[in-house]
Amino acid sequence: MAMNICQRVIRLEETVERISEALDGFIENANHNAIVSNKKHRTDSGRF
Q1: How confident is the model over 12-46, as pLDDT tens digits?
Q2: d(CA 11, CA 14)
Q3: How many CA atoms lie less than 13 Å away from 25 in the CB half-sphere?
Q4: CB-based burial, 7-45: b 16+ in 10 Å, e otherwise
Q5: ∠31-15-17 over CA atoms, to 5°?
Q6: Is the pTM of this model over 0.70?
């Protein structure tokens, strides 16, 4: 029983790690898109 709990904890830690990595990727992508969007808006408005 204790081993089963340990295995579940390990699987949970691995799942959390994968989710964390995926969220980091989404955040990096959102930041990149925001930078590109801001540059485009500045260019379109003639201020850049």
Answers
A1: 999 999 999 999 999 999 999 999 988 887 777 66
A2: 5
A3: 6
A4: eeeeeeeeeeeeeeeeeeeeeeeeeeeeeeeeeeeeeee
A5: 45
A6: no
